[in-house]
Write a structure and sequence with these properties.
Elements (H helix, E strand, L loop, with lengths): L2 H15 L4 H14 L5 H16 L10 H8 L6 H20 L18 E3 L5 H13 L6 H20 L3 H5 L6 E2 L4 E4 L8 E4 L2 H14 L23 H14 L7 E3 L2 E3 L4 H18 L4 H12 L5 H4 L1 H4 L1 H21 L7
Parallel strand pairs: 1-6
Antiparallel strand pairs: 2-3, 3-4, 5-6
Helix pairs in contact: 2-3, 3-5, 7-9, 7-11, 11-12
Length: 350
């Protein structure tokens, strides 16, 4: 038996055992993706949504979905462009899986146009705003009330860590005791977005704040298991991203700098969120390099790796969306070339 015959027999066996009901097909596909090492939370959400859509219209097979129905589901609930893109990507992969087993005649989602995502400009905190934010949070730690002080100190330390290390909120919430190396001053960020694990160094100030939080508010936790959360909430469990966002919004409102996300034309202006601290970290780091005269294009891959970006192009966007970089680049160009160019000008005729 040659390789082609062996593959044909394997395929026939799989087709014979493949479920036919929509719900079972979805479960089989999700199982396959998990087996291949992919995270499936968003994919599962989109596929379950499609199943509910089919049930509401009494559709019994995926082959009954035409382009009209596909478009209706894609835009149901008036989603943002990024949600439509996520739905479309999920369905294209799933229906390609069905097509491979001959359960549908065509992948109808390939004919659906992919919307163009709106231009996004993140909110960047100024140094003065950051000082006000962290001074306010520090002053709000009620040392006379241990349980409240522990939680508010945790909020303060988490948000400082997000800014100082450019972390995603979820990454900071998921940090465990065993992920921190105080001797060598780095975090291990495990199984984060894009399924990557990376090492993130932190500075002496971050080290000091975390040690103070642990010594002052968790002194009995010296011998905790490495899987214990580094930052704990009121119930001594790991913080959730939503609670970090809620607390940060309250702080921004209290000091008068809160800004919601807003749409103007085809541009989305980001609001004051914990993720804006990550954006601010990147911008402030790039600004420092520019002012030091460093070659930012050489530095970008380093920053991208530190922040966990798959491609440094995701980091490079900070250079194009913020006018401050264009102004600095123009000034640097003028300082470097303006005098030599003047020297080349023709002298005035006597």
């Amino acid at each position: 038996m040659d390789a082609s015959d062996a593959y044909r027999h394997i395929r026939e066996d799989r087709e014979a055992n493949l479920p036919k009901k929509p719900e079972a097909l979805v479960d089989a596909y999700l199982s396959l993706r998990r087996t291949l090492g992919f995270k499936t939370s968003n994919l599962k959400m989109h596929l379950r949504s499609l199943l509910r859509f089919m049930q509401a219209r009494r559709l019994t097979s995926f082959g009954q979905i035409d382009r009209y129905l596909a478009t209706e589901w894609l835009h149901s609930g008036s989603p943002q462009e990024i949600t439509v893109i996520g739905r479309l990507t999920s369905m294209r992969g799933f229906f390609q899986y069905l097509l491979g087993f001959g359960l549908i005649d065509e992948n109808i989602w390939q004919t659906c146009s992919r919307p163009k995502a709106k231009h996004f400009i993140p909110y960047i905190f100024s140094v003065e705003e950051l000082s006000r934010l962290f001074d306010y949070m520090r002053a709000r730690i009620p040392l006379g009330h241990p349980s409240q002080a522990r939680v508010r100190c945790a909020y303060f330390t988490i948000l400082h860590t997000i800014y100082a290390c450019g972390l995603r909120s979820q990454e900071a919430c998921h940090l465990k005791i065993g992920d921190v190396d105080f001797e060598r001053s780095f975090f291990i960020i495990r199984n984060t977005k894009f399924y990557k694990t990376r090492i993130v160094p932190f500075n002496s100030r971050t080290r000091e704040l975390i040690i103070t939080y642990l010594d002052q508010f968790r002194p009995s936790d010296d011998n905790l298991h490495p899987d214990t959360p580094l930052f704990v909430n009121f119930w001594k469990g790991a913080f959730r991203r939503g609670s970090i966002i809620w607390y940060f919004n309250q702080v921004c409102k209290a000091i008068g700098i809160y800004q919601p996300k807003r749409l103007k034309g085809n541009t989305v202006f980001g609001g004051t969120t914990p993720h804006s601290l990550r954006h601010s970290f990147a911008v402030h780091r790039l600004l420092k390099w520019l002012k030091e005269g460093a070659d930012v294009n050489v530095k970008l891959p380093l920053l991208a790796t530190y922040m966990g970006h798959v491609h440094y192009h995701s980091t490079q966007r900070y250079l194009t969306v913020l006018p401050v970089f264009i102004d600095i680049a123009g000034k640097m160009f003028a300082d470097k070339f303006e005098t030599p160019l003047k020297d080349l000008e023709c002298p005035n005729n006597p």
